[in-house]
Amino acid sequence: MPKQNFKVCWCWRRIFKTRVVEPPRDVANAFHRFAPNGTMTVDDLLKFLIEHQGEKNATKEDAQAIFDSLKHLNIFHRRGLHLEAFFRYLLGDINLAHPTSSKVHDDMKSPLSHYFLFTGHNSYLTGNQVSSSSSIEPIKDALLRGVRVIELDLWPNSKGNDVEVRHGGTLTSPVDLQKCLQAIKENAFHASEYPVVITFEDHLNANLQKMVAKMVIDTFGDTLYRTEAENVEQFPSPESLKKRVLISTKPPKEYLEGNAEVSESEMGAKCPSDLEHVPDEDEEKAVPQYRQLIAIHAGKLKGGLDNWLSDDPKKVRRLSLSEQELENATKTHGTKIVRFTQRNLLRVFPKGTRVDSSNYNPFVGWMHGAQMVAFNMQGHGKHLWIMHGMFKANGGCGYVKKPDFLLQRGPNDEVFDPSAPLNVKTVMRVKVILGEGWHQDFHHTAFDRYSPPDFYTRIGIAGVPEDKDVKQTSTIEDEWLPVWDEDFEFQIRVPELAVLRIQVLEYDTAGRPDFGGQACFPVKELRSGIRNIPLFDKKGNKYKHVRLLLSISFEPPYDL
């Protein structure tokens, strides 16, 4: 049996035996149930897929494909799978709880307002909101991850004769607008063919707006979606907008009249001259050219919250609220927000005090139908991991169909009330069986200088407040291949919005636990049965080998 040495000092080494993980009890029991003779044939495997894994539509071809995927292993036998080969199949990429090969399956022919969109905030920033650099790299990274809404803040350069992208009123460095547009063009449709929306926070006079109009038209050409009518009664569908780019901003007249929408993050960034600008003759001519770019009109109506959330049957628009504005609005206008978002778009952005580029709870927005819950994509943390998990749904295309209850109206025109009590819809049971791969992806002293790691797993549901729950396994000491074999149960009221959140940590007696990987997946798309999930690093990049083996099942609530 191999051994690992940990040097404590020049005269003392700690030696630990390393072991090869063996098929756990659940795996062995399932194997012997479907292969009583000790060898699992293609027909036996097909029966296992249908009866144990819940793959009701599995075919003999599917079972044969699994056999073929194992032929390169020395443990494969032509007559069938032995227990060890069966175990390796369960830990392989062909048996993921949430397959990376899943395709777009939502109806994509409804209006844009019927979908959640993977949305970025200040998409050009590389770090914090105050002093970091602006670059095209975060824009490229976001698009390649599937983000569909990119935000650019447009400002005049120091000479006032060109346009740059930067976070106004801060020490952040600028980046050329043309470079940003080119980066979007080159990377927009690698991860998804569904439309990209560019939201402009515009702080320009009309001459510079004319310059922007030319840049945008020259860069995107026929991929730019424009509409003849300034007001439309309904947004087009993602299906009809495949490989198209849309511009969303306030109509220029509102900026020139000093009625620009100011986000919390930009308070104090505008000087009086920005808000009191009076257009000259040339600028008046430039305004229509810029206006014609706008496919999604944005802006707040004059007055208070009731006016902001008014739903005009003759035109749709986009409204932006800070996370704090939304949270306050939900206390008194919850159903009005839901009604507004059935036809119009609502964008939520981080409050201005999040100078560290942290994020917020996205479920407040999603539960009220907000389509564009804008996140800082350049950092990490649990809320961003949840966002990544949510948009693994629907083939990772960046568009997730909103639950029917957010789109429906009752016989008296009533809409869903997010504050009303909810009944449990499903009971999810998860057994955390084991983990593997850390010894391949990490140095042997990555977690502890003097011994193998002491891993434990935190598992829970992220979702609406009633569904939030976190549980924890025991700690397995001095083991690279931890076997927990522990069961957990979660009662879920809104599975359509629930995200399974898993984090593996290494216990540290001296301080905070070390990070061993994380994963978030949409509950509604998880496959039942004995499945594995890959783990990801803090930035959301998948480890090559680290994964957990789980047993997942869904059952009706107890009172049914």
UniProtKB/TrEMBL annotation:
Q: According to its UniProt record, where is this protein located?
A: Cell membrane
All copies of domain C2, residue ranges: 408-537
Keyword Hydrolase assigned to the entry: answer is yes
Any single GO CC term annotated in Swiss-Prot or TrEMBL for this entry: plasma membrane
Task: Report domain PI-PLC Y-box positions.
Answer: 320-406
Q: Where does the source fall among the domains of life?
A: Eukaryota
Q: How does it sit in the membrane?
A: Peripheral membrane protein
Q: Which InterPro entries match?
A: C2_dom, C2_domain_sf, EF-hand-dom_pair, PI-PLC_fam, PLC-like_Pdiesterase_TIM-brl, PLC_EF-hand-like, PLipase_C_PInositol-sp_X_dom, PLipase_C_Pinositol-sp_Y
Q: Which GO terms describe its molecular function?
A: phosphatidylinositol-4,5-bisphosphate phospholipase C activity
EC numbers on record: 3.1.4.11
The UniProt record lists the keyword Iron = no
Entries under CDD domains matching the protein = C2_PLC_like (cd00275)
Coiled-coil stretches noted in the UniProt entry, renumbered to this chain: none
- Pfam (any one): PI-PLC-Y
Q: What is this protein called?
A: Phosphoinositide phospholipase C
